[in-house]
Design goal:
Blueprint (H helix, E strand, L loop, with lengths): L1 H14 L18 H9 L19 H11 L19 H10 L18 H14 L10 E2 L8 H12 L7 E2 L5 E3 L8 H15 L23 E7 L2 E9 L2 H10 L3 E6 L2 E5 L2 E5 L7 E4 L7 E5 L4 E7 L4 E5 L2 E5 L4 E5 L8 E5 L2 E8 L4 E9 L17 E3 L5 E4 L3 H4 L10 H17 L8 H4 L6 H11 L3 H12 L5 H6 L21 H17 L20 H4 L5 H16 L8 E5 L5 E4 L8 E5 L13 E9 L5 E6 L13 E5 L3 E3 L3
Parallel strand pairs: 1-3
Antiparallel strand pairs: 2-3, 4-5, 4-6, 6-7, 8-11, 8-14, 9-10, 11-12, 12-13, 15-16, 16-17, 18-19, 20-23, 20-26, 21-22, 23-24, 24-25
Helix pairs in contact: 2-7, 3-4, 5-6, 10-12, 12-13, 12-15, 13-17
Amino acid sequence: MKRQLVAFMTIILLILPIAPSISHADELKGLTLEKEMREMIERGIIKGFSDGKVYPKADVNRGDFAAFLARTMKLPKETPNFTDINKSSAIAGEIGAMQKTGIMNGTTDGKFLSTQPMTREEMAMTTARALAYLGMPVENANVILTDEASFTSDEGITGAKQVFKAGIMNGVKVNASRTEITFNPNGISQRDQVAAVLKRFIDFVGEDNLGKPGEDLPKPPPIIEPDKFQLAAIQNKKLVVLNKTYNTYAEAVKAFNASPTAQGIYKGTELIRVKSGMAFAQGPAGQNTIIYTAPDFKTQATYIMAGREMRILGYDEKFMKVQVADTVGYVKHSQIDFVPTAISDAKDYYTALGNVLHHYTYNYLTKSYASYSIGPKPGFMQNNVKYYSADGVHFLDGAGKAVGTHHPYFQFQSVRTKTNYTADELNAYIQTAIAERESTGIARYAGASTKSKLIDLGEYLKKMEEEQRVNALFILATAIHESDYGMSANAMTKNNLFGIRVFDSTPEAGEKYATPQRSVEAFVLEYANKNYGPQTGAYSKGAAPGNKTAGFNAHYASDPTWGAKIAGHMWRMDLAMGGKDMKSYNLAMTNQSGNLNVRSGPSTQNAILFSYKPRDLGRSGETGYPIVYVDRQIGGDGYWWYKILADNLKDNNGNPIEYGWIRGDLMRTISQ
């Protein structure tokens, strides 16, 4: 009966929200959050039910929160296009505002689910998006979430840490040093608690910033002579172009180096140099930045998505020399932008929390942080200390001193390995994972336990592993990452689990498949075993998830941390299922920049099965092809020879192969 009353009152709220009358103000008296509740009522953010009462202890649903947040942000009302929202309802305009800004979304079948309870995870995630929309980036708090495993997404974890850092939301339990919190992500907040969150949101953002979307970095005023050069200084956290012009880049650089105040050089309206700062892929969103092997811009080394950082190695009038992962390359000025350190020192960093390695990435376009976990922390890292790395392998401390090298196991484990988990175990994990997400009440996971396109894929994944030599856990991790646990729009409408032919500029595009199994088959046959895994492939940089220098990540995805995220999924799955896979193989890396022959036996007299192509070993000189060895022995030449899992499926004569041999001085072990 009580549930029916709450449901009835929720419907009334959606249809007839009205301002509460003063005669009912006593229902707030004595509340711990009375002050916050009264302020939100006075502002018109929280409104009452048909009887004039506000019911401060009533649960908040998605429709409630959308209305409260839209009013808090002073967003103009918009018409929503969700199929389950009556366009004439009292809060339709606020829901439309949330939809237009992208702060709140609906399900893949076009529903908003306004009466669904708003979990604390979804509220944290939504509030963090609102901060990013207003141009108020918040660095993640260096805290341990004791219930991190209860979160349904990395974005939820990041959002919780950001709103905690901003003082907008707290944990249900917080230790004295505020370094460890229990967040209760599945909890449902009551109206007075949400009032407090909104009050803190206003205090953090500032009254004057409400209703204003975040602005891009300031651009200089139009220049009359676009081929001239000008210096720029920082005033009030903005780059301001100085009046004097220079005819050549050399003249401008000379003046720039001599000036104590100049922080940038412009050519026309384009910023081409800063004194100190970070570079990032210019964008706009959906447009990738190409990194070339040489300044003639003829050969692509790799590419990254808009907003992600690059290390500056050198400046030139025609190009920028940068580092992405361990790759040193060249970028056109039209595809790169800068942030002087004096304006913002936000950048990517790593930290260990509870002995788990976390990566915090910064997007310079959205001005917001995101984070994900990779696996166990390396021994040289201390908890709650920031470390920096361009490639996720070679780490520096805050002073720029090298502190250690770490190859996350699953990130550099060859896809030619086999998982120790059975089809039944994989299916059980899938069912548990999607049920957990459905239980959170988050809209996009509605019905996941019966709708997800991952259900019962275990047998087919193991079939692909056995027949095509691609690790089933790797395939599943990639599908989970690319299809959001089988619930993405492309998964639901096209059975496309891997983002195949889905590009940053056209996320709605993508190949259609008759069944999810056909999508798995396409990923394995047309990608893993054709273009990315074997040395005969057009994009082969190593048969492992990797990074932007070695592995699939170099060319498969624009996200420079795609390989590390896939590794994180594999590690978390392995952890949940008993830890059978972690360190079950020996990892190594080739160390040659020229051709490297793989032979049929431990001698140079044995036939060459295939060869690793010449490659750049990166800025470190250490990034070769990731390999796995299963045995070793001393050859007749006195060298150690290592038996490896062959990246290629066939030898040079077209015969099937599974193993090959490499001489020990042509590789180095990297197993931790």
